[in-house]
Amino acid sequence: MSQPAELPPPARMLQMITGHWISQTVAALARLAIPDAVAELQLTSSEIAAKCGSHADATYRLLRTATGLGLFVEVTPDVFRLTPLGATLRSNVPESMRDLAIAETDQGHWLAWGKLSDSIRTGERGAPKALGKELFEWYREHPQDAATFGGAMSGLAAMVAGEVATACNFTKAKTIVDIGGSHGTLLATVLRNHTHLSGIVFDLPDVTDRARSNLDAAGLASRVEAVGGDFFIDVPAGDIYLLKQVLHDWNDEQCKIILSHCAKRMTDGGRVCIVEMVIPDDNSPSMASMMDLNMLVMLPGRERSLREYRSLLESAGLKFERLIQTHSPFQIVEAAKK
Fold this sequence. Notes:
This protein is 50% helix and 18% strand. The chain is an alpha/beta fold. It has 2 domains: 9-89, Arc Repressor Mutant, subunit A; 160-337, 3-Layer(aba) Sandwich (Rossmann fold). Strands 6-5-4-7-8-10-9 form a 7-stranded mixed sheet, sandwiched between helices. The protein has a 3-stranded antiparallel sheet with strand order 1-3-2. The model has no long low-confidence stretch (mean pLDDT 95).
């Protein structure tokens, strides 16, 4: 069988230009909870529309497009079944991407990305201009959007949590501190895998109630504490510090402050496990470079190379030990107290 010819450059560029159509198609499925409505069933577009409160013909057109994207299979004319890829848009399933699909196409991120050209031209972030205030301030004023964003971060944490739990050395530790731990997804996985540990989720006070509720529901109430605070001021004492997608939010000087607080408060033999998308030394294509643009428009931070992480750690009194690859877009940078 002959291989399909590669698309000519204009056709490939058309795919790139219309990439936001795909994002909004995926987000519409997520917002309308269509994958939840279908779940394990095979339904017509009218049946799905009735369950989701949407227009029947418009729903069929959405499902037809989603089938072309591999999210559904049309098993017989106008009868649709969810694929494993589409199932990642269900809520309350392991590694759900539903909240991420909604958060990335809502005002908080969508409007800021519209300012990318301005950010490239000036080097200034787009989010404050697009939203009229700093991103996290905007989220405090929009609690539903903030909850969705928190769920999105939990989905990303779930993608790598199992490998963090097995790849990092927790055998001699007693207390794990999840800095900026949001809903506690990463910490919960570590605690389930290491029953001798106790843990602390440390985040802004308006986030910790949700973390506490999630960890209680996971049956970990007796082993975990949710503490509100500001990591630019201080952090709780502990043996191992988890920082998943925290440092990439901030500039080098801010990261030095966070890491210095961790180094100061950790016990002898303590360590940090930084979970981030590390930019390859050869700048080969990776999700890290796209995430770096996201930081350019959203927050003061950036994605970094291993060389840059080594420098940050050194400036904070920490010693780089190893880089751990995972089966996800993330890597783990492990360091110890000097």
